[in-house]
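pipeline/complex-builder :: batch 7 item 3
reading input block
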Amino acid sequence: MTSPRKTYIIANWKMNFTPGQASLYLQRLSNRVQASRDIQVILAPSTISLQPLSLQINRRQFKLAAQNFYWRDFGAFTGETAISQIRSFVDYAIVGHSERRYIFNESEKDICEKVAAAIRNGVTPILCIGETALERKNGETKSAISAQLHEGLLNVSAEDIDKVIIAYEPVWAISSNKNAKPAKPADIAEAQELIRKQISRVYGKETSENISILYGGSVNADTAAGYLEIPGIDGLLIGNASLVGDSFCSIIETAKGIRNER
Ligand code: PGA
């Protein structure tokens, strides 16, 4: 498959960094990373940092993503932030991250409403799907991935599917999990194929070839190349290793090197 798709390198900072620390990180990163047509670097800070970073960021160099939002556009939802309130700060939004699913009990309904809300507000959703350790042990990896993909995209029409990015993140591989272990390239390749086949059945072959599929789970500067070389994997969603500027920059450089070789 010759790929016109971009490579996405996404920093999911999770609940780390004050706005001041986030700003300092961005400043240092800006001095080290050149903008590139083929590589899209995206930072996902806490909601509180989105506005200040959006004023500081050079959008040709980096984009911002929300880590979370509520799917209604306004109303009596104490403590929530709507995507309509932050849409001018971000280009992307992470939806369905396993920490949201399993710590905050987000349901499939919440997730498909969020995917739709992001699209409605002109923001690209990055839909995270992936099996738990138990599902994997029980031989339910394929059915878990398939069900999450189906549910997450329930509200997405053929017209809008090209506005969605999929991230395959096996829950057992995410560094915050006890006994996390990195996924094997063969497993990721298989999941990627399954996702494209399902997209092809619902939305057609061309869409399945155009959609971007990322991998996330314990990626670091040493392992990034191995994941980026998996055919059909278009980038990385990075948690822990993105908190350290040196390792995040090194992953970006690795991605550039791999793109240049193609
Ligand atoms: P990790 O997190 O790189 O720390 O495993 C990835 C993620 O949760 O998206």
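note: The chain has a mean pLDDT of 96.
queue -> next item
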